[in-house]
Design a protein that fits this description.
This is Nidogen-1-like protein. This protein is an all-beta fold. It has 7 domains: about 55 residues, no CATH class; about 220 residues, Green Fluorescent Protein (Beta Barrel); about 45 residues, Laminin (Ribbon); about 30 residues, no CATH class; about 130 residues, no CATH class; about 70 residues, no CATH class; about 300 residues, 6 Propeller (Neuraminidase). A hairpin with a 4-residue loop joins strand 81 and strand 82. It is built from 3 helices and 91 strands. The strands form 34 sheets. An 11-stranded mixed β-barrel has the order 7-8-9-19-18-15-16-17-11-12-13.
Length: about 1150
Amino acid sequence: MPDARAQVGFMSGEGRTFILPGSGSAQILRYDRMSNVGRRGIWIFQVGNTGPNNNIILPDVKDDPHVNQATCAQTFTPCPANSKCNEYKSGFCCECSEGTFGNGRECLENDKYQRMSGKIVGYLNKNQLENVDIHAYIDTKEGKTFTAISRIPPNIGPDAQGLFTIGTIIGWIFAKQNTGAKNGFSITGGLFNRTTDIEFPKTGDHIHLEEFFHGPDVFGYIRVDVEVRGSLPKIPFGSKVEIDDFNEIFTRESSNVLRSHSEKVLKVDQSGRVEIPFSMDQVIKYEECHFLPEEQMKKAFKLHASRNFIVYDTREEILRFSALYSISPLEDNDPCIQARCGEHSTCLTDGTTHRCVCEIGYEQIGGSSEQATCVDIDECLTNKHNCDINADCINVIGRFECRCKAGFKGNGYQCEKERTCEDLRCNENAECVRDSRGVPTCRCRNGFHGDGYTCHSSVEGGPTDCYGIKCDPNAECLEDAEEGGHKCFCKFGYMGPGTYCIEEFDACDNCHQNAECKKDAQTQTDYCACKPGYYGDGYVCSLETSQSNCNAAGNCHENADCIFNLAKNVWECQCRPGYSGNGLQCTISNKGKRVMVEPSILFQIIEVDCLIEDNCSPDADCISEGGKSRCRCREGFEGDGIICRSVHECRSHEECKVNSLCAIDENTRTYRCQCNPGYYKIENECKPHETAACNFVNNCHKEATCKFDILKRQYKCECKDGWIGDGKFCSRDTSCNCDMNADCNYNPVDGKYDCVCRAGFEGNGYQCRPIRTCLDDAYLCDRNADCIYLSDHRSYGCKCRSGFIGDGRQCRVLPIYEADYLIFAQGMSLLQMPLTPTETNRGKLLLTKSHQLPVGLDVDCMEGYIYWTDVYHRAIHKALYNGSMIETILEKRTESPEGISVDWISRNIYWTDSKKDVIQVATLDGVYVKTLINDGLVDPRGIVVHPGFGRMYWTDWNRNSPKIESASMDGSDRSPFVTEDLGLPNMLAIDFYANDLCWTDAGLKRIECINLSGSKRRVIYTPAVYPFDITIAKNDVFWTDWELKFINKVNKNGGVVEHLELPLGGNGRAYGIVTVPEQCPLMNNACSVKNGGCDYLCLPNSRGGRSCQCPDPSYEGHDECMKSFE
């Protein structure tokens, strides 16, 4: 493609444009001689204070009658640099210089190959033609043209061969010019309109064409738009279609108008030759130089076409024409000079004779003489119109009009049913309303919020919203009364954080003796909770005060003993039988004593005869003395007989040998030196028992620790993280089986995985417990967080409030940006477009970077940046949402970066490289880079990440085995996701609210979606032409197409596709596209705070954890990172 010619004009930030005359043409070289105020080289425009809907205001300057601009020297609109100025009596005209041809205002070099391209729309044989491409290649030296019309469906492909006249007009434009004749470009400069009507009298078919030739574009190629309406004769499949050499005579009917009438025959050869005669009327309107003398304006020219070739390629669905064209002048004795044709008719030369032909819209009555009358044709009555079936035909003198019927919209030739509320699939909690433009749309009712297609309850009791978090099949999304939002809760009989649930054992089977079983009001599940006065997790409960702890008998009440509590693993004071209290204070119970309360005496004790009431200690006897019976302690015991205790062997632990303590003997009720639990006495020494628990006997391996097993209610040895065994013997392990509150992190130095408890928990990674909850210390939570019960942890924890993001201990503001618009790449530019463009706001240019080729786009919704890949510079760039602050973060370290995705939580970017066949990740500043996937890739292209799930998805459009794959965002747990019924999958997008993955397939011409669970795969739209990138916003899918100059839009539930016209500022194919959201989706991962504790790359995984990774060896930070693992 040649370099674009310079353009000049104004462009506002909102997309409004004003193009100056001659922009994109050779005229721009004369701007120093041109003016809009009558002073050469001076231009004046009002560009400010014009109002939001006004454009550039031109100066209010009248032509100066004293200045004659009719001469080449004085004009302010001079001829282009590649033409010369010829002065005539009343003015001047431009004439192309030697070696070029054209009309003087547009000149092309002789004998250079030329191209032409455009679009064909309309209806043909009751089939809609939508954005059909036309391309032509022309040898101007020989007048040879090659025309191709692509994407003609096979059901009308053979019939469409009758459209060969489209190739004929291209031949007229660039026909070889014989002496004294001008081709179409020399007359029009490529800027004209043609109207053609073709009648097939044998079949009754009629076709109407409107062609709009826009002249050379900035690359020097002519652009054309064609509208087709009507029918052509049916041609059998496989038939050969021919047309003999023919002539067409173009007559200058009036100033700026050429006309031609001809009759030809199509020859269809299958089993036998069939001839299909037809007549063709064509009118060409253009703008000529009015000062050219009449004698220089030829009245008629003859176009000769030879070597005609017509074919329809069924396999490629392409219609092809080619022919050789030349143009010659008619002889000087023009037969139309003496003709006197009537009203509404014109004279056409036919060889050496002439005839009067009625103008289009009229028919002849009264014979074929010059006096014949031309009267209006009622196309509506004779059914010669081509209005849409849903339009009304209205006859007008010389023509007809088509108007869409009520309930339909369009231009009359194409009418589409207007969208009504019945066509929409509004949510059951939404209503259909019409917006300011009268377009029906879905709106959630009061008490609900959403886009109208999905509505979530704003109050308790309605449908719920988990804000992009996918619940486990055994969980449900419930409103959190504590927080006011929604989250996943496991159903009854299951346990877990809600994002995954496992079958629950009876949580209350192992409650501590000082705990009780309670039911969670939200989840309706049981859990253990310590009783009042105790603290712990319900499985181990301790007294809130440590005052009852003791060290032998010294600090207990005189009526209490210091006894080891196996359940609590502590020594504590316990009141003796007959007394009650906490062991530090004991009072006599009312057993054996009757207590009477008197006003002056707190207690009065009355002795009771032990013969009447057996109240003696087991270590006492009831003895009669002096007519009374009383209790007396036996030998070796001391006390009042009601309470008897042995004479103590020891008074403190220091008096006992190793592995023994001074403790109460339950048999003798005296303090004796006794072996510690887990030990037994042999010959006055305490030896360890084989089955003793490790909290009593330190018999664990050096790489093991002694831990309490909640389920078995005992202590046991457990190997440390990275080791396996029974705890008494441990060996290295390279796998993980971490606690649900721990992360499995790979240590590349040791070549193994380590379990590490998350922030807020302590333990060995295999068992993690909260260090201290926010109920104990409210200052553990950020000022923008609340302390709520977290069912997945079964404890209280911190959670950031709405509008903030973080782990609850640190919360930062979730920024809000101007939203609801698209950013897409076209050519060297990035442009912005509203989700619903209007006439006054079609979008605007954001930025242009010289020679770049942006392919993939994504946004950092936390900081308000756009990130894009640049294949030309082998780089990744970023800029603010408004297009400013362009910065290259990675350059020439990639080969062909294509798809890109931003993890706004972990602050990383992911991309594919189709030349290196790898998937890589880097910090947002591009400093630390790591290759995650480098095997099994053929043609990786699109990539998206789900930071909340820790998963990434990418396409590989390997033609032999196209697929969509998935892996954790640290590169582990790779697996195929979609492998069947794929053509050429291009780019991907995730709907974070529905948990859907959508993609474009250029091979199957589809837009498809599937749930991230792998279910509910469905086609959203087909046939797409050549879809490339895709994005999702408000339940609508938007995509770019390499063959269409539109952004395409369709509802996720299907429906009619909308084509959104591109704003000015870009050129060429549209590549990447992304939605700019108001806020980031509400989710979190293990890297959200302090980079997950990693010094370099923190990469989340799909297990809810994260991996600390080192950069690749060729990137900064690799050596230092590896040393940190040593």
